[in-house]
Specification:
Strand content: 25-35%
Largest sheet: 7 strands, mixed
Helix content: 25-40%
Radius of gyration: 18 Å
Number of helices: 8
Structural class: alpha/beta
Distance between the termini: 51 Å
Number of domains: 2
């Protein structure tokens, strides 16, 4: 097991991985296994073999989207918040936000991939967040139903409801889908609601119904952190719709944009 390897040997292995060719990385990858990483009093078990986010945590000792994460941590710190983490992965946002948020807070972590649900649950338990964080084992969409979650390459973090080119697709899984509106009523029990969404290009399917309803006085969160890396796949200018709904952009970093609702 990797946690039995001496720290110095592990550092050497990481350096070899960083600087190696794709063939050398593949060889190193074959020797890896799950390992516990600790940063900022946060503990996470990560498997660097098949998930970019976990590989980054193993390599660097912290999550890859650190600026985005810190912006949300500052937003929720010691406050009674509802966090809707859409595309929770291994918990790189779920766990720090759960720990930073105040009494009465709830983090709902949406993750449809059974493999990642298991890893997410391990990290929730490891940080004693079982009474604050709830896993929803579904994909968010614009309706109740089901859809195929497509896997891309050897990176579980790139699984998507969007179609994947055949030569990149490495399988799929039928998963349940729910609309965002099924989970927003809980916001009335909290002082602040934050949506973090990273669903590999399917963001507009999730958010468009909420944004369209806002024109008629519908519900909106207080903050939205959205991955914009795949904005070219959207059929609408989702960022413009968020701004038009009364938000202002306060951060662009690491392929994400943070929007805060104007007061």
């Amino acid at each position: 097991m990797m946690d039995q390897i001496k720290a110095a040997d592990m550092d050497t292995l990481r350096d070899r991985f960083r600087n190696g060719t794709s063939k050398e990385r593949a060889a190193i990858n074959a020797t890896l296994s799950p390992v516990e990483i600790e940063f900022a009093d946060i503990r996470m078990v990560v498997d660097p073999r098949d998930n970019y986010t976990e590989t980054c945590i193993w390599l660097e000792g912290y999550p890859p989207e650190l600026k985005s994460l810190l912006a949300l941590v500052q937003l929720v710190e010691d406050r009674n918040v509802l966090v809707l983490d859409i595309g929770a992965n291994c918990g790189a946002f779920t766990i720090p936000l759960g720990l930073a948020s105040g009494d009465g807070s709830r983090v709902v972590a949406f993750e449809p991939n059974p493999v990642m649900i298991g890893r997410l649950a391990t990290n929730i338990q490891l940080n004693d967040l079982h009474s604050k964080v709830r896993i929803e084992g579904c994909a968010l969409s614009d309706r109740d139903g089901e859809a195929v979650l497509n896997f891309r390459g050897h990176n579980y973090g790139q699984a998507s409801l969007k179609r994947v080119q055949p030569r990149q697709r490495t399988g799929g899984l039928l998963v349940p889908t729910r609309p965002l509106s099924a989970f927003t009523d809980a916001a009335k029990n909290h002082d602040l609601t934050v949506i973090k969404i990273d669903v590999e290009g399917a963001e507009e399917v999730v958010l468009n119904p909420m944004l369209d309803g806002a024109a008629d006085g519908g519900w909106l969160p207080d903050a939205i952190l959205i991955e914009v890396r795949h904005a070219h796949q959207w059929q609408t200018d989702l960022c413009a719709k968020i701004l038009a709904a009364g938000f202002e952009e306060t951060l662009q970093a690491e392929g994400n944009a943070l929007y805060i609702k104007k007061k």
